[in-house]
Every structure is written in C-alpha cells, then in structure tokens.
C-alpha cells in the first residue's frame, strides 16, 4: 500500500516544525509538501534542515500547485488561513487535519460544509491524554451534578493569540452537555470588581499566559468540604503531532465526513 503523502501548512510555526520532525521520523507516512505564508522566512528553506533532519521538500507559498503532491493537509495556523486552505483542499479533493483554534461559529460551519466533500478531522487538541480527559470530565460532571461549582483554568506560552484555549472551551462544552446546559448560556470568562456571589449554574474560565508553558488545563469541581480537580499538563508538542498523524492515517481512503479526535481514537 502507498504511504499517505502529508502536507504541512504553517511549516515554520511551532506546530509546523514539530509535525515535520514527526513525519520525517515516521516510516508509515511521507512528507509530500510544506507550505507557509508568502513573506515568511521559512519560504525556500529545506523542510528537513528546518528541524535538523534530511528531506527533499522545499517550503513553498504555492498551496494550489502543491495539492498534486499530497493526500492530506495538516493545518495548525490561524483561523483566516485555515479557511483559505480549506477551500483549496476542497477544490482539489484533499482531506484535512485541522488543529487551529479560535475559529468562530461561521468558521466552524464552513469546515462542516467542506467536510461534505472531503474528509476533515477538526479538534482543539490532538493529544491522546487530553481526549481521555474529555471522557473523564463527562463522567465527573454526571456524578458531581449538584452542589459543585465548575471552574476551568488554562495556562499557555506568551505567544498564544487566542483565549480561552480551544481545549478549555471544549472541556466546558463537554461538562455543560453532561449537565444538560448550553455553554453559550452559562460561561463566565474572567471576573473583576464587585461580581456578587457566584451563580451556581455558571462555568467559569480563567486564563494564564507566560513564558514557554506548552499547555496546562485544570477543571475544578468545587463542593463544600471537598474539591475534585482533573488536570492535564503537556510538556512537549509531540503528543499533538503524533495525534495529528493518527488523524491523517484515519482519513486516508475516506471520501468525506467531519470527525474529531474522539472518532480517531475510537472513544465514541
Ligand atoms: N489542536 C491541537 O492539538 C493544537 C492546536 N494548536 C493551535 O494551532 C495553531 C498554531 O499554533 P502554533 O504552531 O503554536 O502557532 P505559530 O504562530 O507558531 O505558527 C503558526 C504558523 O501559521 C502561519 N500563519 C499565520 N497566519 C497565517 C495565515 N493567515 N495563513 C496561513 N498561515 C498563517 C505562521 O506564519 P508566520 O509565522 O510567518 O506568521 C506560522 O508558520 C493555534 O491556533 C493553536 O492554538 C496548537 C497546538 C496543539
Ligand atoms: O496554542 C497552543 O499552544 C495550544 N493550543 C491548543 C488550544 O488552544 O487548546 C491546544 C494546546 O493547548 C496548545
């Protein structure tokens, strides 16, 4: 069987470089192409050299022309870039793994629409451990369904541009769904001043940004006399890259459809 040829967009970024390294070390897939935005210092560089390895792929800004070299595009960029790449992939019949966070409702709808034509895995966190935590949170919320205040705290590096993280928001969605609530109606994003007493129906979010923190998430279920905390801490971006490659292998051979990492990992 032919190995899946994977393209990386945002190749010069933190996740882009991690993905290139993971692909070059993985015998089951091939780096077919690598892309970045016009004007990026990564354009024209050898993708292997970028991560201290060997490759014959040169980073290009020409995504349209590069479609012929890949079976799947992995995208960890920015919402506006991801939506442009989505249209190019859709026209070329190429599947996508999308890790970009911060997409609004319109962007998410555009992804769902494109997934009618091509297979797409779209998930705010590709790490197996975080996806296990989503399952644990569903169980915790169903059991601690009364008398426990829910607060979600996330911490990331100083370069992160969106808040709360996509993962924290998904954690909120999982907990809210388990409790029969809609996150849009009960989320409180930060507090300041004379806030009044806590409304028990709310789910609170707090964001920390600093240094090189890769990604920490804690969901607290705070009762009277006890507190349960479910925490995930990432110390490397490798789990995100490995999860992305699992997702790329998952969509190989599929015609279309919208999936997330729960599907890829068989957790549904
Ligand atoms: N789902 C998951 O498991 C994970 C998701 N993420 C998400 O992935 C995204 C990227 O994270 P990270 O790698 O840390 O970010 P970086 O800023 O390090 O990398 C982003 C890359 O995308 C490029 N880029 C920026 N804007 C555009 C655009 N409009 N069109 C195309 N390319 C663009 C950047 O180019 P340039 O530098 O030249 O601007 C850069 O190469 C974020 O949304 C983050 O939250 C991150 C880790 C895990
Ligand atoms: O920007 C990051 O770094 C990360 N972003 C994702 C998110 O917003 O949830 C996933 C991970 O936490 C790292």
Secondary structure: elements and pairs:
Layout: E1 4-9, H1 14-24, E2 29-35, H2 47-50, H3 63-66, E3 72-75, H4 79-92, E4 95-98, H5 105-114, E5 119-122, H6 128-143, E6 149-156, H7 166-178, H8 183-186, E7 187-189, E8 203-209, E9 215-222, E10 227-234, H9 238-251, E11 257-259, H10 261-264
Parallel strand pairs: 1-2, 1-3, 3-4, 4-5, 5-11, 6-8, 7-8
Antiparallel strand pairs: 6-9, 9-10
Helix pairs in contact: 1-9, 4-5, 6-7
Describe the structure.
The chain has 268 residues and is α/β, with parallel strands linked by helices. The protein folds into two domains: 4-126 and 237-265, Rossmann fold (3-Layer(aba) Sandwich); 128-234, Dihydrodipicolinate Reductase, domain 2 (2-Layer Sandwich), CATH 3.30.360. Helices cover 35% and strands 23% of the residues. The protein is built from ten helices and eleven strands. The chain has helices at residues 14-24, 47-50, 63-66, 79-92, 105-114, 128-143, 166-178, 183-186, 238-251, 261-264, and strands spanning 4-9, 29-35, 72-75, 95-98, 119-122, 149-156, 187-189, 203-209, 215-222, 227-234, 257-259. A six-stranded parallel beta sheet has the order 2-1-3-4-5-11, with helices on both faces. A five-stranded mixed beta sheet has the order 7-8-6-9-10. The two termini are 28 Å apart. The model has no long low-confidence stretch (mean pLDDT 97). The chain binds NADPH dihydro-nicotinamide-adenine-dinucleotide phosphate (NDP) and the ligand O=C(O)C1=N[C@H](C(=O)O)C[C@H](O)C1.
């Amino acid at each position: 069987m032919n190995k899946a040829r994977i393209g990386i967009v945002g190749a010069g970024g933190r996740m882009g470089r991690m993905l290139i390294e993971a692909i070059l070390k993985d015998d089951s897939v091939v780096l077919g192409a690598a892309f970045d935005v016009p004007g990026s210092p990564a354009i024209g560089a050898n993708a292997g050299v970028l991560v201290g390895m060997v490759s014959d792929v040169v980073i290009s800004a020409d995504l349209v022309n590069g479609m012929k070299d890949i079976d799947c595009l992995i995208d960890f960029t920015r919402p506006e870039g991801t939506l442009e790449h989505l249209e190019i992939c859709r026209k070329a019949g190429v599947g996508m793994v999308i890790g970009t966070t911060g997409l609004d409702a319109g962007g998410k709808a555009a992804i769902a629409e494109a997934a009618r034509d091509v297979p797409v895995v779209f998930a705010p966190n590709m790490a197996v451990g975080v996806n296990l935590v989503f399952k644990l949170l569903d169980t915790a919320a169903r059991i601690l369904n009364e008398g426990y205040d829910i607060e979600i705290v996330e911490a990331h590096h100083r370069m992160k541009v969106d808040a709360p993280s996509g993962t924290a928001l998904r954690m909120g969605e999982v907990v809210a769904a388990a409790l029969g609530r809609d996150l849009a109606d009960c989320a409180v994003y930060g507090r300041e001043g004379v806030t009044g007493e806590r409304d028990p129906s709310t789910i609170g979010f707090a964001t920390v940004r600093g240094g090189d923190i890769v990604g920490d998430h804690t969901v607290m279920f705070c009762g009277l006399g006890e507190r349960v905390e479910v925490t995930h801490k990432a110390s490397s971006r490798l789990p995100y890259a490995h999860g992305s490659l699992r997702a790329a292998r998952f969509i190989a051979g599929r015609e279309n459809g919208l999936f997330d990492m729960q599907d890829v990992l068989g957790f549904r």
